[in-house]
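REQUEST FORM: STRUCTURE PREDICTION
Request ID: SP-0412
Submitted by: Lab K.M.
Chain count: 1
Length (residues): 485
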Amino acid sequence: MALFMLGKVQRAASLCRPHIRSCRAYRITPQLVDDLRTLVGDCNISTANAVREQHGRDESMHSCQPPDVVIWPQNVEQVSKVASLCYTHNIPIIPFGTGTGLEGGVSALKGGVCFDLTRMDKILNLNTDDFYVTVEPGVTRKTLNAYLRDSGLWFPVDPGADASLCGMVATSASGTNAVRYGTMRDNVINLEVVLPDGRVLCTAGKDRSFRKTSAGYNLTSLFVGSEGTLGIITKATLRLYGVPEATVAAVCAFPSVQAAVDSTVQILQCGIPIARIEFLDDVMINACNKYNDLGYPVLPTLFLEFHGSENGVNEQVQQAAEITQLNGGSDFTWATDQEQRNKLWTARHNAWYAALALRPGCRGYSTDVCVPISKLPQIIVETKEDLITSRLTGPIAGHVGDGNFHCIMVLDLNDKEEVRKVKEFTDRLARRALAMNGTCTGEHGIGIGKRKLLQEEIGEVGIEAMKQIKTIFDPKNIMNPGKVV
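STATUS: Completed
RESULT:
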């Protein structure tokens, strides 16, 4: 949906629209650039076109819309001072992490100053006794887990891309482990946030790291999923978990989509504490086989992973195998050692690129609806039938353990008829999910393109409440304007 809600399709996402300042309520003057340079240093600011264009788009299909200036703050004090300067001059602020988002969240719709936070990359406080860690916004999930390797702990939220952890907070990311360990919303303990006027807020109180609280409004959760529209996240305290004693992964093929998804629902309804359960349809499996040089049967397939003690994992595997076989599933193909598991999950995480490789030269757009798990078989079967009837390329992959799945639409932007058909399909898919009491986005966020769908999802009163919250935190509407509400 995000591709089309812009009102028109851009022919090439790599090209930026002309940089026009005349429509803006501010002007970036040489003096203002000098003031920014004074605050962050000569080597931490750029107005070069190539740099601005790099920061004007993410992995989505939205056209590049660059900021006027890019800065690389080194600490929270610099973030605060620059935010205060922008607030004084009514200049938009756009936070930037790794640029791996899929809904245009970093597009500078009204220009402004991009805060690239990648150079704030310290792991500040690891507490192995209390199972938490505090990180700066430039730390990515892979960097954190590499740092934790000898501690016996790990951070399980895994959206696929090596995204920045504070960026994952901003979009409320999840991924393959969410069915067992939850999303970012479940794993954030405290946040340090620079508000638009430069004030610094600690959402749970300075340096606090409790596991639960009933102290007032939940400000931490308010900023999780706010997509940079309320403030700049400069520090996150995150929940950690013990590395499981035993880990086993398996692959199981099915004769039909219905059989694979029914197995998923039944495994969850039986209370099996599965760590990962991912669905790939036959088109997606075929793409992954070709892209990753694999040899899985070209059938609807589940990728599963089990965590726990040796005895516990064996019991989980036995129960899950009985359920899959009752639904016509094949025997499990096992991946027990780390190298085998990495190969299996790398193939799953490469699904986006495998799908694009089906039609070289085309572009991709990933839907991410989420429904109650009891509705999952119905919506995936109906979506698969819709894809076939519409004759569209849209392999399906999903975190079906929590009711979330993706159609990776691969299309030729020069083919107006195909663009129209994809738009109609994605609209039908989103509204099909809403009709089943689901959501238009399980993990990618609203960004630019799903604002209308958000209105349909939460209603007029909900949107008005969100706008009021936005106004309280950002009265001048300079924080990532044009996103979410």
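NOTES: The two ends are 16 Å apart (CA to CA).
Reviewed by: T.R.
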